[in-house]
Amino acid sequence: MTYTKDALKEAIQQKLRLNYGCTEKQATDGEIMKACALALRDIMAVRSVDTQEKTQEQQEKRVHYMSLEFLMGRSLMKNAYNLGILPQLTQAVEELGFSAPDIFDMEPDAGLGNGGLGRLAACYLDSMTTLDIPATGYSICYELGIFKQKIVDGQQVELPDDWLNLGDAWLMPKPQEAEEIHFGGRVRTRWDNGHLMVVHEDYTRVLAIPCDMLVAGYNTDHVNTLRLWDAKSPKPIDMQLFSQGQYLKANEERAMADSISTILYPEDNHYEGKSLRLKQQYFFVSATLQSITRQHIQTYGTLKNFHEKNVIQINDTHPALVIPELMRILIDDAGLSWDEAWDITRHSVAYTNHTVLAEALESWPQQLFETLLPRIWQIMQEIARRWQQKVDDFYHDPKKTEKMAVIWDGVVHMANLCIAGGMAVNGVSALHSDILRRDVFRDACGMEPDKFRNVTNGVDHRRWISQINPGLDGLIRDCIGDGYLTHAGCLSDLDRFAGDAAVLSRLEQIKGDNKQAFARWAKRQQGVTLNTDAIFNVQVKRLHEYKRQLLNVLHIISLYQQLQDDPNMDFRPQTFLFGAKAAPGYAVAKRIIRLINSLADQINSDPICRDKLQVVFLENYRVSMAEMLMPASEVSQQISTAGKEASGTGNMKFMMNGALTLGTLDGANVEMHQVLGDENMFLFGLTADEAARLRQSYDPYLLYTRDPVLHRVLDQLKTGFRDGVSYEDLYQRLLYGADCPADQYLLLADFASYCAASHRVVDTYADREKWNRMSLHNIARSGIFSADRSIADYADTIWHVPYKK
Fold first, then answer.
1. N or C end of the chain: smaller count of CB under 10 Å?
2. What positions carry a catalytic annotation?
3. How far apart are alpha carbons 430 and 453 in whole angstroms?
4. Longest dimension (CA), the chain
5. Looking at residue 546, what DSSP letter applies?
6. Which pTM does this prediction carry?
7. What is the pLDDT of residues 470-489, one digit of tens each?
């Protein structure tokens, strides 16, 4: 069925009357936005029913993608684009007397994620739907998201992100499908005719209410679902306590349940925070598995074929409790033996690893499990015992047994649980997967080598080219047609236009227009005036020391010092743009944000830098900001310490929009280099192997004493800038260490190489024809990083499900 402008206009008017009791003449922008969302939701709901009926009738294998994050961004334009009705919706809104861009801009970013992990999950859900794979995403319906970042006196302040105020129009609550989750209490067991009987009693109950968000695929009637769980207490209030005037105590149970789905990643540097995080993870896992197994039994009447009709992909270790929870359901509820249940579990669950950082491989104190999840703890102990015996039998090496243990010395290791209980473990770039095999999970790989795979990450190229960069989309269509939208590999046909002066000139004009558009946006949003004649040099990503925003800062300080020494020097104008959130408890990351803002204040107020050097920290970086920024970016900084970044996806989005990469051979940069070569990106720094060797004898103080440029830059950290704040703590951390080795992420080791590569960037930019040709090659060779390709890899090598080719 096609949807005309008039049909959409009528649907919006009807939603205004039925849902908000008003006409378009009385409606606010927010009501118009929500009415548009409801109109699109109705279209998708009809298609969703058809999709479910087809999946049910054909008994197709289902994919269940579990992630604690889904960074969906805004959905109104995206769903309209995928449904093929964005022009009609735009016209309908305009004819109702509203500005379509203003209405689209009203929608908040859905507060369901933080960084690359969540954005990847969102891209994958889009591709699974576009490829007609029956799939459901699962997460938590966070009331207040992660946080809204505010910069006050140069420092990050976290504010609640009340995204549901307008974003709830996409959600369809289904209280009739609620699941009950049990925490605490005690477990009694007894054997009856050879069967273990388990009684869990005196527990606290929490209800998980599903709120479904429909996801439309591109150029298909297939619709999938993102199921978000909202935590509620089954007992709204203790009436007896309330009647006695103990109002706060009367609400205790409800408040505790509500807290589970309030905020993503609550601070966990205290016992209560750790407890809440574990509750979140089990709540999410238990609700999801109860829902999946209930649907399976309704269709097949048994769980014995569960693994044949379902595959559960867990995105990082946060959903790892799916393994003992599935065992609990199969043994306690379905009455299967341990061996039967373990065989089903081991053929149902696959694990994607996203990190090589030891501190990010989740672990939990045994005491938390014993207290919060007594039955799960019993199952975990048996999994750990059997796995340990298997490792012992294979290696006969106590050190390897300890390293691979699921439980050891009172600590539960979630990555080892995923390896023990999963059918596949994949990294997310070729380098990352190689490091997992050779280093992080070396012993596990030695025991079960066929379990370890690679699926390089990808991004939704339709969103990150066509939807957000219409000028570039138009150029691509004029050159090679629109086939790239469903077959991203077609982008390679652009390479033949590398010598076409008209195409290169148009590409440069598109970039200039996008820079102007972003500058207008930044002026409206943040009150900053950007120099659009300068190179837009961009680093936007989660703030972490290994991502090395501080290395970028050190280089900018050196540029500033050069200008101080010679204000009349020949200097190509550069605007450095940062965007990053620091975890609330990550003190060093917060200090780096303050340093960036101190430096920005110093440089932007110094007359010698006017029209030459500019530094801007973009507040509250989010998906909708990235959609404006990436088409305008010219240099993409991907400068993590080699061997530390699993993959990255921002690097791919920048590449698709023609930005040139300044980066290390880390994560997916390695595969970008394979398709681009040295001539189309700017590489610097140590390789992963070189970095590993250097660490054995690394002394950053020697570099400080031998390099006068570096010496002066680091001394500036101690002195600080015009705001009077000293950054001697960062100086000390780099040269002497504190709670970590000195210069743990090798900033000083790569400093000279980084500065030289940055100089090459500026020199190359001066040759506009060469730069534009390099930009075109980047776009042409980015198709391999489409999420469609990634999902096809998962479908072929791990899930074994058919998909639309």
1. N
2. 354, 541-542, 547, 649, 653
3. 9
4. 91
5. G
6. 0.96
7. 999 999 999 999 999 999 99
